[in-house]
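Q: Here's a chain of 229 amino acids. Please give me its 3D structure as tokens.
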Amino acid sequence: MSKKSRTKSSKTPSGSPTAKKKALKTQASTPAKSAKTPRTPASKSTGTLAKPGSHRAASKQLNSSKSASPPAKAKSGLTEGQKAPAFRLPRDGGDVVTLADYAGRKLVLFFYPRADTPGCTREAIDFTRLAGAFAAAGTAVLGVSADPLKAQEKFRDKHGLGIPLISDETHQMLEAYGAWGEKSMYGKSFLGILRTTILVGADGKLARIWRNVRVDGHADEVLEAARSL
């Protein structure tokens, strides 16, 4: 081998300065490329961040639709001067009472939420106390609630009530006279009996309607209205 070819071959091995420079360039370029690669998922994540914004808008629409409560059950549109709705229901003692039984007479119907509760007891006792005065005014009085007959009879016997008590467990009469509707207690809404009193004239028409009755002095007020007819 000539001296010139030995010189060339000595410069080509990987350990030569030229090879080392090439290796350093390769290593320097590799991190630069890898540093660029994280940018690709960053641009994707920008796209995914846009979706939660649309989700929040949709949830507001759903919440607003949920907050719109369904309309409350409509009360009866009865007004004074209208004809009294007919009824046929059982009363304490087992008899049946109808509106026709009181044709040609004035009639008081007081609707109370529940037998033997404090307010309902005071109201029934007050109407019993004035039973003779109502009779003298040509006016009959009936108490109405959704209690079963046994509860009505127990209520009558316990407090010595002298007013016939009607049982309307199906709520048909209560609804017809607007005494059944939405109530609220302790922040909760529910359907139940609205304390109501109706005075029916001898002509069979509604003479007076009392809604949201307050018990104290109410029976006396109804008596005065019956006397004035």
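Q: Can you summarize the key feature?
A: The radius of gyration is 44 Å.
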